Amino acid sequence: MAGIALLNDTPLPVFLSNLNITWRHFLRAFEQPWCSSVAAMASHATLASSRIPCSMGFHSKTNSPCFTKRLEFAEFSGLKSCSSITFAGHSREASFSDVLAYQLSTKASSSTIFSMKCRNHACSYASVYPFQAARAVPPKGVTVAKLKVAINGFGRIGRNFLRCWHGRKDSPLEVIVVNDSGGVKNASHLLKYDSMLGTFKADVKIVDNETISVDGKPIKVVANRDPLKLPWAELGIDIVIEGTGVFVDGPGAGKHIQAGAKKVIITAPAKGADIPTYVVGVNEGDYSHEVSNIVSNASCTTNCLAPFVKILDEEFGIVKGTMTTTHSYTGDQRLLDASHRDLRRARAAALNIVPTSTGAAKAVSLVLPQLKGKLNGIALRVPTPNVSVVDLVINVEKKGISAEDVNAAFRKAADRPLKGVLAVCDIPLVSVDFRCTDVSSTIDSSLTMVMGEDMVKVVAWYDNEWGYSQRVVDLAHLVASQWPGAPAQASGDPLEDFCQTNPSTDECKMVAIKQLDHDGAQGSKEFLVEVLMLVVLRHPNLVSLVGYCAEGGERLLVYEYMPKGSLEDHLFNVSPERPPLDWNARMKIALGVAKGLTYLHNVANPPVIYRDMKAANILLDNDFNPKLSDFGLAKLGPVGDDTHVSTRVMGTYGYCAPDYAMTGKLTLKSDVYSFGVLLLELITGRRAFDPLRPYAQRNLTLWVSHKGWKWGMLGSSTMMVILTELDITLQRSRAISSVHVRKLSYRMVALVHPFLNHRKTILRLTDPYLRHCFPPQAFQQLVYISSMCLKEQAHARPTMTDVVATLDVVASQPYAPEPAFMFTDRAPSLNLRQKG
């Protein structure tokens, strides 16, 4: 069993054998012929400590049938704390290896679903060091008996709920019965084959006239329209998922309680003030087991609207607003014109846009009482089968905000605390692209608008079936977590529960997981390159590899956890919780990154070209010491008489050296250029490329060059011709070769560095958050280093050794800043970087 291997002083040949990798494959991965030098370097390779994880705090999401969906967890930037594992030195009573083995033994019989939005994985979380996962000892404190669940109404939401629940292998629930008037045949067929979700990957069979099975789990099928006659008492039902849309008030849903069920979750807005409403991500913390036996999960539109309305109100203060939801048609409408209590819904759903009423906006006040009377809205039913969109326009209390401020607030919330509930999309997509998204709402950032001083418009997509059903499962799990007899604060994860019942006496160490794309050869190649690089490279400014998983198509890497996240977080996502970096911190980061590159270029043998320098790949520990991460694109550099390595152009737009981008000739000086761009980001506080900015400001180096020309620093006819030609070319880029456009772009970038030598000019481009709190001489020196790194010709750029020597001098000039910038009501808004 491969699983997550945590290696301890393991020579590279042994490590390769564990991955079933030969030396030939190893050399081919780097596309280099230097067998002897690599072998010499590899003979001394060791890895980090091999303590076993004491808690795998992952919340497994459903095995989505939409296999083309993106993986949110694949984003490595910052190594978020929610993607972390706890490592402990020692545990009392049962050993951790037994607990881990127990978990593996229960998961090995079926596909393991790993973390957020992952597909079918055959990766088992065992360690080949220092034990074999063979013993199955039930862990202390783990709930064995699951709550029995019944689904009343096996329609769209009922079937979606079952699929979502089935994908959560660690669920404390067990669906044992469904009430479907169509009987066994319809229940099994429509569960297996779905026009929206596709074919269910589970094995669905008819067992007998009253039972179907899903992957061998029997589920009884009953057919009775009267809840009082349902066999809930006989079957010992704990929770009923009320999905008919009929029994939504106290007397109606109460019939399930009378029939023997203990709790009812209504999958629709409840009628009556006696039934509490909960929206996951908004007010789920208010839930108490003793309050009511009947609860409502609200509507799909309220689940979309409430999370981002909560953020808007907390960050900017909502005065009033209106909402329009463009909603897919539902089974409540008529396929052809026919009688209906709502005369508009009586018209053919597939032929018309049907205006109708919705209580979703008003219902927000049920979970956010402070917004009572402030929101209203309507719905437009359209001829699409699934995925809807909310268009919200509000007036806010805070004046002078920008669309970027609004999107920044959403990004912060989507990262934490609404991760898994709220997402932000920067790509221009359409409704079909949001099918089977697990989140409740996805903000379309390009459509966010601010009019005047206080009017804000936000557009959010939501899968009104799948995403909503995920929240129903979440709410059911919340109910289960407070069930009498459940372990205190049980997570549903045996490893996490083990940690709570067997606390370590030693200090715990956090690590982070990176998941690579396992679709295609490129993901496997990047995994192999990154692992092998980090096996042989050890430096304080390189992130440490703790372990790996390489089983089947899965590729996971376990790293040391960097609590401060990435440089990108602190440089571009400034917030009250994440204040801007001061001069001393920026210098410390710049010097540390330079030292890491110097090690790769001059100490590693053969040298290594990093090739993926960007703020997102610079991770920070608690003391803001930087570490380079993500070595998937790294290449072994030239040796002997070779001057370069010829390879396909790869990297991040805005950071690539012009000579490499135009010729494909990769050298150590390519990294030097990328480092110069990083310094420019530290100086200006702007991204190397930011598609959310106005067209002329998107590319940092091009924008800087434009500023230099505008202020007379590069005033020349040549510059004007190139600017004009570049602008025209980019506008016609669809009709010409992208290579031609790229060459013009990099030719333009190559001309920017002279202006960086002009002190008055560059002072106008400094990050406003620095507030001119830096030593002037050291600042000019840093600008000079950046300009030298951005030289057009590779041979004119300094080596990283020279850069480190110069930065050492610059960083040795400590600066005592003024009192830290505080975020108060009187402080400037967070859009200091908006102007110019």
Automatic annotation (TrEMBL):
Keyword presence, Oxidoreductase: yes
Coiled-coil ranges (or none): none
First-tier enzyme category under EC: oxidoreductase
Domain Protein kinase: 473-816
Listed SUPFAM superfamilies: Glyceraldehyde-3-phosphate dehydrogenase-like, C-terminal domain, NAD(P)-binding Rossmann-fold domains, Protein kinase-like (PK-like)
One MF term in the entry's GO annotations: ATP binding
EC number per UniProt: 1.2.1.13
Sequence similarity: Belongs to the glyceraldehyde-3-phosphate dehydrogenase family.
Quaternary structure note: Tetramer of either four A chains (GAPDH 2) or two A and two B chains (GAPDH 1).
Protein name: glyceraldehyde-3-phosphate dehydrogenase (NADP(+)) (phosphorylating)
Protein species of origin: Zingiber officinale
